[in-house]
Amino acid sequence: MRGLHEKDCDPDPFKQFDRWFAEAKKLSLQYPEAMALATATASGAPSVRMVLLKGVDANGFCFFTNYESRKGDELAQNPQVSLLFYWEPYERQIRIEGRIEKLTEAESYAYFSSRPRGSRIGAWASAQSSVLKSREELERRVQEYEKKFAKDDIPLPPYWGGYRCVPHAIEFWQGRVNRLHDRLLFTRDTEGWTRVRLSP
Ligand SMILES: Cc1cc2nc3c(=O)[nH]c(=O)nc-3n(C[C@H](O)[C@H](O)[C@H](O)COP(=O)(O)O)c2cc1C
């Protein structure tokens, strides 16, 4: 496996992310944009789940979800998050640490309205992370919202939208032989990004 040498790594970690992400998208993966999202309660108890990266802008990494879900609840208590990408065919992982901020309602609406009708109905029907009596209860709720929005545009649910992880650390990990992997860690302070190499 090709290594990650300092001279081949962009000094801007966002640009380096774009490079690796573009390469991951060339693989025949169903979800190259899948990432693990770790959150924690106010007292620091962690939880982790997969979400899909839906955009990278100058400030950070964006995803969408239900603000009243377990993750939404934890993010309201504690804005510190960690993201993880792993692209097995390239033996690459990217670890990101940062603080979360909510996207604006306009940004959330723009993404919500681009989703297929079934997903938009699903966002209304599912009180994500709450206990259901049965599968039938969920399906009944889907039918209710299908009926309710049969003629109208489907509005953005007030509890649904996006978050942005604004990173202060990004590590690029490239697998190498004999576990002598390459690890380039970027950290941000008021001056900008600094890069160091870590032991594998
Ligand atoms: C590949 C994959 C992608 C997913 N993408 C999302 C997503 O973008 N947003 C989301 O809310 N849940 C997504 N999920 C479901 C979450 O992993 C999780 O079950 C859900 O968000 C509830 O998590 P919570 O109870 O911790 O809030 C995805 C699951 C998988 C396996």
Please write out the topology.
Layout: H1 13-26, E1 34-40, E2 46-52, E3 55-56, E4 61-66, H2 70-77, E5 80-87, E6 92-102, H3 105-112, H4 117-125, H5 135-148, E7 160-174, E8 182-189, E9 192-197
Antiparallel strand pairs: 1-2, 1-5, 3-4, 4-7, 5-6, 6-7, 7-8, 8-9
Bound molecules: flavin mononucleotide.
Could you characterize the architecture of this molecule?
This protein has a single domain, classed as Roll (Pnp Oxidase, Chain A), CATH 2.30.110. Helix content is 26%, strand content 35%. It is built from five helices and nine strands, in the order H-E-E-E-E-H-E-E-H-H-H-E-E-E. Helix 4 (117-125) packs across helix 5 (135-148).
Task: Considering the chains and any ligands shown, give keywords for the structure.
about 25% helix, about 200 residues, alpha+beta, 5 helices, single chain, nine-stranded antiparallel beta sheet, binds flavin mononucleotide, Pnp Oxidase, Chain A
